[in-house]
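User: Study the chain.
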Amino acid sequence: MKPHLSSRGRGIYCYGSLEGILKQVKSKNAQWLAQKYMENPLLIKNKKFDIRQWALISDWDNFVVWFYDECYIRFSVRDYDPENLKNRFSHLTNYSISKKATDFHEQEIEGNMWSSGEFADYLTTLTGKDVFRE
């Protein structure tokens, strides 16, 4: 869960039960965004990741959306651990959170980020074909 209109990883919580979610919602006078957590996420080098893609909506009436060709991939600092939902470095990929980890600059993935080209190359090694551009 995260507060409505929040950014940079502020106020994000992971809960393992509906009771925890309801307690959080009732404790604060705010709007919240809730999403289902993926129980079995695709991992790269035991890290969670997200894909950041830029888009521009140039017309709401006809709904025209433009996508930038390139994207980037952000990784968590720590290995994924579904048993410890409180470890923000394992579950969140936000730079504002990740940079606070004591070992942030000692990661196998430099800057905890890949370009779309690096991601495409990785997927090709996994599948034997260019699934990123298909």
Remarks:
- The beta strands are 2-3, 32-33, 49-59, 64-75, 113-115.
- The two ends are 33 Å apart (CA to CA).
- DSSP finds four helices and five strands in the chain.
